[in-house]
Design a protein that fits this description.
single chain, alpha+beta, Butyryl-CoA Dehydrogenase, subunit A, domain 2, 3 domains, three-stranded mixed sheet, 11 helices, 7 strands
């Protein structure tokens, strides 16, 4: 049931709508500088970190306020896409597992975007099987010494902090003996190398750690129980990706395709209309799943395996979108001239959609999670369940 009266809900919606009308602009969704400026203004207006306690930098409001904000925000340009990891993954993990001191120190600047955070899980030898990670952290007095490598770390080159998981006990099985830490990316021994992408951007990175010293109190959560915390973070990630902007039912890819079908003069073609309605129905379904996931979180439930449904379906929609866009737009779907043209927007959407089946966990991993933890099907056979990590031939261990 709603925690707000209809009058209170309408007053808050009006406040949000007035703020967004004055502070949003199109074309800024992938601009980190614009996102940080916008988020700072949100914080000043008391609209940032809506459900988080005020003592940790949040607005101290309810999840009902958060739902209203998301719903109203659907009417305006998306301004904080570049903060989805910082706010959708790192922030809730800090809130759930951080000590009171860690929350007071780190959450306010995270919420206001004075600092940007990244997630540091994947390694060259530990992608889908993240538990095979080899980056290690060894205790040395009042510090941890970190050595290893991470890869495909989104926005590491512009981030201030990272939430990292590392091996702290190789005598335990691979899913144990892992701990989570907060790492200052300006620390000596951290080397960040951006990866050049097909769309001309540098969104992902390789990150190398050589004798990087982390204060002992930067341990996030329980020692050697980092896998449970990492799993929680992945759940937050899949909800964030699968329900990005979820506040009401929307069909952004359908809207883009309709414009192109009209431009190409094929919007009345029965085959094209059938394809358009496929995307419309799929995006509608995805929105409803996302809204259900958000509703469960509003009710106080931590994200569960259901987040993989929206994540996987988003990848399936992206794949179908590419096929239909190529049929409708022809060469314009893969080549363009000039900046900020309609062709460029379509092309960038298509290129970036290719990562949807990988980022945040591959489609295959999502299907395994759904089969095992949603449908209750038998798990895949595992031959290394009881083998100490140091005895496994994984990654570069041979």
């Amino acid at each position: 049931m709603s925690t707000l009266s209809s009058q209170e809900a309408e007053q808050f919606a009006t406040k949000v709508r007035e703020f967004l009308a004055a502070n949003t602009s199109s074309g800024k969704g992938r601009d980190l500088g614009a996102a940080r400026t916008f988020q700072g203004r949100l914080a000043e207006a008391g609209l940032a970190g809506i459900p988080y306690p005020s003592e940790y930098g949040g607005a101290g409001l309810t999840l009902e306020h958060e739902r209203i904000f998301r719903q109203v925000a659907q009417e305006f340009p998306q301004m904080t896409g570049e903060l989805v990891i910082s706010h959708g993954m790192c922030l809730p993990v800090l809130n759930e597992f951080g000590t009171d001191e860690q929350k007071r120190r780190y959450m306010p600047d995270n919420i206001s975007a004075k600092t940007v955070w990244c997630q540091m899980f994947s390694e060259p030898g530990a992608g889908s099987d993240v538990a095979s990670l080899q980056t290690k952290a060894e205790r040395d007095g009042d510090e941890w010494v970190l050595n290893g490598q991470k890869v495909w770390t989104t926005l590491a080159h512009v981030s201030d902090y990272g939430v990292i998981i590392a091996r702290t006990d190789a005598e335990q099985v691979k899913h144990a003996g892992i701990s989570m830490f907060i790492v200052d990316l300006k620390s000596p021994g951290v080397e960040i190398r951006p990866i050049h992408q097909i769309d001309g951007g540098k969104h992902f990175n390789e990150v190398f750690f050589t004798d990087v010293r982390i204060p002992a109190d930067n341990l996030l959560g329980e020692m050697n129980n980092g896998w449970r915390q990492a799993t929680a973070m992945l759940m937050y990630e899949r909800v964030a990706i699968g329900s990005l902007g979820a506040g009401k039912i929307s069909q952004p890819m359908y809207d883009m395709l309709v414009k192109w079908a009209e431009k190409a003069g094929v919007v009345d073609d029965p085959v094209v209309r059938d394809e358009l309605m496929q995307i419309y129905a799929m995006e509608t379904t995805k929105s409803m799943v996302a809204m259900r996931n958000r509703a469960e979180m509003k009710a106080g439930k931590a994200p569960g395996p259901g987040g993989s449904l929206g994540k996987l379906y988003g990848s399936i929609i992206a794949r179908r979108f590419r096929e239909i866009a190529q049929n409708i737009a022809g060469p314009a779907s893969v080549a363009w001239e000039g900046e900020n043209s309609a062709e460029e927007q379509l092309n960038l959407t298509m290129i970036n959609s290719l990562q949807s089946g990988i980022a945040g966990g591959t489609d295959e991993i999502q299907r395994n999670i759904i089969g095992d933890r949603v449908l209750g099907l038998p798990r895949d056979i595992s031959v290394d369940t009881n083998v100490p990590f140091k005895d496994l031939k994984v990654g570069t261990q041979r």
